[in-house]
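Hi R.,

As promised on Friday, here is the backbone we talked about, encoded as structure tokens. Could you run it through your design pipeline when you get a chance and send me back a sequence?
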């Protein structure tokens, strides 16, 4: 009898374990983990209360809700974003993620949803007025960002004295204000935001380095998720939800349809 009871208890424990695993899987399947750079205003950043906010945060939340799923935003080291995606630790890369040919070899992309450009920011009193003036200067960029790609593709790269890489744009702009770098190559949507918050600190060169477009990165082979997400994006673009979010953050409808 004692042996029988022991067997019953063992079977019950196994069934409970399996039930727990099943519940966990269902929960994971119902939640999309989105990898972000939480210092990339106004697309994804932390407000004064340390809450993650921004255009991409609202846009992603609306799209995931349209899919009937839940969303979790996971701040990541932007230098390892593709590794985070391929390992399965995140489901999507979504925070000012520029579409490039190199990245197309690593991830699947949605259709572009925002236009952007890599521009050159300098202190407002700087004598640098054109790209050629960067010769012999120290230039800052966010490490492993499309700013580096844009710089590498421009002839001025060979004339620059030093290229300093930063973990994020906030640190790059901090060093620019402190005079530790002469210029920063940065996303136009990002520097526009900081210039609106810190009037009189920076100015932009008239010449931009490269036009570009943002998309959402999906793991290679996960075509079903890509299709489901794109359908949701098309729906919130069509019903006016995306336009309202854009008006909130940019004061106009910038979303590509």
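Update: got your reply. Pasting your designed sequence below so it's all in one thread:
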């Amino acid at each position: 009898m004692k042996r029988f009871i022991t067997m019953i208890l063992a079977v019950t424990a196994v069934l409970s374990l399996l039930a727990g695993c099943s519940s966990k899987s269902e929960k994971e399947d119902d939640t999309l983990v989105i990898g972000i750079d939480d210092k990339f205003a106004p697309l994804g950043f932390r407000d004064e209360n340390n809450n993650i906010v921004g255009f991409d945060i609202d846009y992603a939340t609306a799209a995931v809700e349209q899919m009937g799923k839940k969303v979790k935003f996971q701040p990541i080291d932007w230098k390892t974003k593709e590794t985070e995606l391929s390992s399965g630790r995140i489901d999507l890369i979504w925070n000012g993620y520029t579409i490039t040919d190199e990245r197309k070899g690593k991830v699947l992309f949605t259709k572009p949803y925002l236009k952007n450009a890599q521009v050159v920011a300098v202190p407002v009193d700087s004598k640098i007025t054109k790209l050629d003036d960067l010769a012999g200067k120290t230039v800052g960029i966010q490490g492993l960002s499309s700013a580096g790609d844009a710089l590498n593709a421009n002839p001025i790269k060979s004339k620059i004295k030093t290229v300093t890489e930063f973990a994020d744009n906030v640190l790059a702009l901090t060093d620019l204000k402190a005079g530790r770098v002469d210029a920063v190559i940065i996303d136009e949507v990002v520097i526009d935001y900081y210039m609106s918050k810190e009037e009189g600190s920076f100015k932009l060169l008239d010449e931009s380095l490269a036009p570009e477009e943002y998309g959402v990165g999906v793991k290679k082979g996960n075509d079903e998720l890509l299709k489901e997400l794109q359908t949701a994006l098309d729906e919130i673009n069509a019903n006016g939800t995306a336009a309202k979010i854009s008006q909130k953050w940019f004061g106009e409808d910038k979303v590509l349809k």
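One thing I noticed while checking it: The chain is about 40% helix and 25% strand.

Thanks again,
M.
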